[in-house]
Design goal:
This protein is mainly alpha-helical and 418 residues long. It has a domain at 35-141 and 226-394 and 401-412: SGNH hydrolase (Rossmann fold), CATH 3.40.50. It has helices spanning 2-25, 36-43, 48-52, 54-61, 85-91, 108-115, 119-122, 143-149, 152-161, 166-177, 185-192, 199-218, 227-236, 245-258, 269-276, 280-283, 297-310, 324-330, 334-349, 378-392, 409-412; strands at 68-72, 97-101, 126-131, 314-319, 356-358. Strands 2-1-3-4-5 form a five-stranded parallel sheet, with helices on both faces. Helix 2 crosses helix 4 (54-61), helix 10 (166-177) crosses helix 11 (185-192) and helix 10 crosses helix 17. It is globular and about 65 Å long. The termini are far apart.
């Protein structure tokens, strides 16, 4: 009997041991070599693989010869027209290159745990963080989207440093609500309750994390895409060789005019045809009851601020507008929208985050928006002007002073007024 069982399971066990050994022999990300072209591919890939991968982010952000800056956001980075920040940085050989960190449905909580993978690489550096007020709905981030972009190494890395602080308790509770891997629930429940992890807990976490980090490195370069060579480099040829703001704005108008001919909202033709035209009548007045003033997203934003303060990262926050014509058609309360922007800005400024590029009042400008909620064409040029100034001129050192009241229910679920 034992001999038969050995013949059946022996090869399986041996294969597992061999795979485990192979993964553990792979050097971790800190020992990998820098390759500028490969780093550029990763920085512009916009694939879930890159978004979740620790090795690719650490490799680019630690390159001593090239300055990659994390650009956090959601789906706006996919709007790769000729004025996209990666195209502009490449065309005019900016002293920085955007490392695009965003996916459709990704919000503050996703970004917070992704940051755990690159804490050292962000220390005393700069970053750009795009905020969309549309994130701040009553239900907060969609658990399905969160789980899709979640990598266990993020939570395990965070757990190694989690304390009995208000922010860590809040983060643990939010993770539990996201219904991630049940294998982490034991640790998360302890932190959420204000308890410390035991030595045994931390040992188990360290062993699992070591294995996953080796695995992360092994599969780092798979499926990172070719956006850099296929979508970024070719578009640099559409721009004037020497930066000229007036020329670029004229060019943006020309591109936008050609691509907004099938609708009255100034929305890109393809987006309108694929996403709106078939349900045009049904969408009218559909956003009358939308409210961005009461949301757990404000607490998730506070986690982001906590992390930036921890790494002393100097951040430019960019607030996106909403297409004004679209807002009127769908019945979105623009006064409520501006109140949510004010609430976000108060949370930032009151804690020392003073670098804010607020485009929330620009949704009525011609060719500023590429679709309903994302900037493009002229909007990208305004974005580029603010970002380039922030990243290329000397900035005062940040001085942050965080306040735990921004985790409280009274802040998350109440309207805001000056």
């Amino acid at each position: 009997m034992f001999k038969k069982l050995g013949l059946i399971f022996g090869p399986v066990i041996l294969a597992f041991v061999l795979v485990f050994s192979m993964i553990m022999l792979v050097p971790e990300s800190s020992n990998t070599k820098h390759d500028f072209l490969e780093e550029q591919r990763a920085a512009n890939a916009l694939t879930p693989t890159v978004f979740k991968n620790e090795t690719l982010k650490q490799r680019a952000l630690s390159d001593p010869n090239h300055r990659f800056v994390p650009f956090f956001g959601s789906s706006e980075w996919n709007r790769m027209d000729s004025f996209h920040p990666s195209v502009m940085a490449e065309a005019y050989q900016r002293p920085y290159r955007p490392f695009l960190l965003g996916q459709r449905g990704a919000q503050c909580l996703t970004q917070y745990f992704g940051m755990q993978q690159m804490t050292q690489q962000m220390r005393h550096k700069q970053a750009v963080f795009v905020i969309s007020p549309q994130w701040f709905v009553k239900s907060g981030e969609d658990p399905a989207a969160f789980n899709y972009y979640f990598n266990q190494t993020q939570a395990l890395t965070w757990l190694q440093h989690a304390k009995k602080t208000t922010s860590d308790q809040y983060a643990a509770k939010r993770l539990l609500k996201m219904n991630i891997s049940s294998s982490l629930n034991h640790y998360l429940t302890k932190i959420a309750a204000g308890k410390s992890l035991s030595v045994t807990d931390l040992t188990k976490i360290a062993l699992k994390l070591r294995f996953l980090n080796h695995e992360d490195t092994l599969f780092a370069d798979l499926q990172i895409g070719n956006n850099y060579t296929e979508k970024i480099l070719p578009k640099t040829k559409n721009l004037p060789k020497i930066y000229n703001a007036r020329h670029l704005n004229t060019l943006a108008d020309q591109y936008a005019k050609r691509n907004t001919t099938n609708n009255k909202f100034g929305i890109d033709n393809t987006f309108y045809e694929e996403r709106i035209s078939s349900q045009f009548k049904e969408i009218k007045g559909s956003q009358k009851s939308v409210n961005y003033l009461q949301s757990p997203e404000y607490g998730d934003l506070q986690l982001i601020l906590q992390q930036f303060a921890r790494t002393n990262t100097n951040v430019l926050f960019v607030i996106q507008p909403v297409n004004e014509k679209w807002a009127h058609y769908t019945g979105l309360n623009t006064q409520m929208y501006q109140q949510s922007v004010d609430k976000i800005k108060h949370q930032l400024r009151s804690q020392g985050f003073k670098n804010i590029a607020d485009f929330s009042n620009d949704g009525n400008k011609k060719y500023f928006m590429q679709d309903t909620i994302h900037i493009g064409w002229r909007g990208w040029l305004s974005f580029d002007k603010k970002v380039n100034q922030f990243l290329t001129t000397k900035q005062p050192a940040p001085s942050y002073h965080l306040n735990n009241k921004y985790y409280t229910k009274s802040w998350l679920m109440n309207s805001y007024s000056h």
